[in-house]
Design a protein that fits this description.
Radius of gyration: 27 Å
Structural class: alpha/beta
Strand order of the largest sheet: 1-5-3-4-2
Number of strands: 5
Order of helices and strands: EEHHHEEHEHHHHHHHHHHHH
Distance between the termini: 43 Å
């Protein structure tokens, strides 16, 4: 792929109806009224995604470098593929994009992307995407994976100017929209109704969406939101609260498509527990009930210093159980648990101690089976 000049693109993506200026060459001026329905093919190097698109594809560090002009789209795609090797959620995302790209290359693009031409200082005209970012990155990734010599082209519908409202509406209609992406879409609608648009000089895109959490909304916005999104106000409010999570947790929750019910528990937990809870939810596939139980247990331990247990203690307990299980797998081991129970009863002579031991073992067995079922 030919090298491209890198520019800081973070200030460009002003996808506001009044700010995106369409570019027309003199010979095209007479057909200006037809540009909204004109379908063309544009080389990927001339296409620019929207920095404030609510659906996140690039990890934060790669996205930041791309829009800062430190890498072009092909270098960003290469970095994305490398990052995916160590992350199951990112691996799934990249594989899905590659399948889409291969389908477009072999069978053609079924639905064109949409956007409008904008002027980029130092680069000239670029096609700013309103919709179709996944199609764009799928082709970029496929071009990198297949080492294509000829640059692929994205089929697009040229519009006179981009519309954030249209962009948000398309995102909401997606069947696979994550809870985080829906929260950002709802926030976008609220801000559009208040005529608040992204600041192209903003360092952090999430600060734009979090403005929707500030104060009471003007009269009439909630009924309109309910009509557009198709959910009642409590459902919309619960999703908005997700935006209180840190940027890191929002990215992980979006990447792994954690549902609102589990995120609701994490948002309600103390800030210092939220990261641990989300990682546990991902690694152990904990349900919302499991998360609530974990929060409550930690709260109870905080109230009673004597019952406080450090995380290392759980690891020690698990390690000892694992050692015992490993011992039972040795050749010639007699799995006569009546004998084991008899020997244990000699050590625990009090019947109440034996009862407590039985209950602990039964609870541990139930927890193990629950985790096993979730992993199937």
């Amino acid at each position: 792929m030919p090298k491209r000049t890198h520019k800081d693109l973070s200030q460009l993506t002003q996808t506001i109806e009044t700010q995106a200026t369409p570019l027309l060459e003199p010979a095209q001026e007479q057909v200006a009224t037809h540009r909204a329905t004109r379908v063309v093919y544009i080389p990927l190097g001339q296409v620019l995604p929207d920095r404030f698109q609510s659906r996140v594809i690039l990890p934060p560090e790669i996205k930041g470098a791309f829009f800062a002009g430190e890498m072009d789209c092909y270098q960003a795609a290469q970095s994305l593929m490398v990052a995916a090797d160590g992350d199951a959620g990112l691996r799934r995302e990249v594989d899905e994009l590659l399948l889409l790209g291969q389908s477009i290359l072999s069978e053609g693009q079924v639905e064109p992307a949409t956007g409008s031409w904008v002027q980029v200082q130092g680069l000239g005209p670029r096609f700013l995407l309103e919709a179709g970012e996944r199609r764009f990155w799928s082709l970029v990734l496929s071009a990198v994976q297949l080492q294509l010599q000829e640059e692929p082209k994205l089929q697009v519908v040229e519009q006179k100017e981009t519309s954030r409202l249209r962009q948000v509406a398309e995102n909401i209609q997606r069947e696979d929209i994550s809870a985080v992406d829906l929260a950002k879409a709802i926030a976008s609608l609220i801000l559009i109704f208040q005529e608040k648009y992204p600041d192209p000089n903003a360092v952090n895109e999430m600060d734009y969406y979090r403005q929707a959490l500030d104060g009471r909304l003007p009269h009439g916005i909630w009924p309109e939101l309910e009509r557009i999104v198709g959910f009642a106000r409590p459902h919309l409010v619960r999703h908005l609260q997700i935006l209180n999570l840190s940027d890191e947790l929002l990215y992980l929750a979006s990447l792994y498509r954690v549902e609102e019910r589990r995120l609701r528990v994490i948002v309600a937990a103390p800030k210092q527990q939220q990261r641990e809870l989300l990682l546990a939810a991902l690694e152990e596939q904990l349900s919302s009930e499991d998360l609530e139980r974990a929060v409550e247990e930690k709260k109870m331990r905080g109230k009673n210093a004597r019952s406080h247990t450090a995380p290392g203690v759980y690891r020690q307990m698990a390690s000892r159980v694992k050692s015992w299980l490993k011992f039972t797998q040795q050749p010639g081991f007699d799995r006569n648990y009546d004998r084991v129970a008899t020997e244990l009863s000699v050590l625990l002579k009090d019947p109440q101690e034996l009862e407590r031991a039985a209950k602990h073992l039964e609870t541990l067995a139930a927890s193990l089976r629950k985790i096993r079922d979730r992993r199937r």
